[in-house]
Each structure stands twice: as structure tokens, then as C-alpha cells.
Amino acid sequence: MQGIILAAGDGSRLKQVTLYKPFLLLGNIRLLDYVLGHFLDTNVDNIYIHFNESERAMDLSKFQLIGDRRIKYGFLSTKSSFHTLNYAIRHGLSSFKDHVLVSMVDTILSKHDFERFIKFCETLKKNESAILVTSYIDDENPLTVTVGSDDVVTEFQIPKEKATVVTSGMYYFSPEIVPLLALAQEQDINKMRNFLSLLLKENHIIKAFHVAKTMDVDRPEDIDKAIHYIGEIN
After folding, report:
1. Which of 2, 14, 17, 34 has the fewest CB atoms in 10 Å of its CB?
2. Residue 163: what pLDDT?
3. Residue 95 belongs to what domain range?
4. How many structural domains does the chain have?
5. Residue 13 sits in a domain of what CATH number?
6. Is the pTM of this model over 0.90?
7. Which one, of 50, 45, 36, lies nearest residue 92 by Cα?
8. Which residues lie below 8 Å from residue 71, measured CB to CB, with a gap of 6+?
9. C-alpha distance from residue 61 to each of 20, 67, 68, 141 (Å)
């Protein structure tokens, strides 16, 4: 299995705490190392990390795991998370003939739930993708989701009060999304949420896997919550 970690955001809301979001220290572990640890502890054997151009100044030696032989990385500023994904798939992977696991750099979940998600993903057909979802909401602008029968996603970006779950920043993409990446570029799609909606519009099957709780770290007030949560689940 190949994996991508999207770490190219500028982390503007965390600038008062850290210059580089992946470098953020959560207790005794850096944000990137937390996500990398999950990838490396499972069967993800080729991992590409996409950093923002401004993050070249980071001291990569401070990361505990980035020196692993299964990891490669690159630096490039992009317009959005969708553009980062598109670049990472086209230039970061050695090939895209099988599914690829994709995570935002700040997706915090338990190792147990991560392993359950991977097992679920391994049951998918080649033409099916998956997303990680949760009913726990601690975000001012979450991507809401409706899930129908057989775990199939039926709609994104619905009113929050009608949503059953929200996305958690982790995806398992089928190689059949490749032509839809090009279509999204033609339509000038800039956001990951709009790309996911396009996949549904084009009848691509996306299945949802539900976990009780995940967290992301976007704001300074999220840091203590994340540290406490990591302490609970480890």
C-alpha cells in the first residue's frame, strides 16, 4: 500500500505557536510523527509527504520517523488541499495502480481505529474509495456527510443539523479517480470537499467508515485538547 500525507497548508492559525504546522509539538511527539507512526506501523510501505515550500527551513532531523527508508518527501506551495493531492498523486507516487491512503497532517485518531479503518479499506473493490468519518464535531466549518445503505456516501456539504457524520481528513482513493482529477482541474475546483462532491456527481462510489472520535489541530486552542486526547488513547 502507498500513502500520502498532505502537509502543505500554511497553518496560518497556528503561526503564533509554531512557524511550521508539521513541527507542532504535542506533548513529547511532533504532529507529523504522530500521523507517520500510524502509517509505518501498518502495511503502508511507500509514503510520500508533501510539504509547503515555506517549510524547507524546518530542521527535519527533529522528526523521529522521517528518516525511514519507506518515506520520501517534496516541497511545493499549492493553491489548496485538492491541488496538493493532485500533485502528490501525479508526482509523488511511484505508480497509482492500486488504492492509495491519504491523510491530512493533523488527523488525530487512535492506533486501534486507524487499524480498523485500514482493514475496512482492504475489503473495497478497485472502483471504490473510502473516507474516515466521525459523529464528534469540534470544528467551525466541518465537511458534513450523509451515509446511506452499505456505508455508501450519498451527499457532502449538507446543513450541519441534518448531517449524520463529518469527515476526518483521511481517505483511501481508488486509482479510478485519476481521470476525475483532470476533470476537477478543468472545472477549476480548489477545495478537497468540492472534489469529493464531484466524485459523487460522476457516480464514483465512496464508502464511509465511522469511528467515535477524531481530532484535528487547526487553532491554538486545539493543542491542549489534542494532547489530552492522545494521552487518553495511547
Report:
1. 17
2. 64
3. 2-233
4. 1
5. 3.90.550.10
6. yes
7. 50
8. 36, 47, 48, 49, 65
9. 14, 8, 12, 34
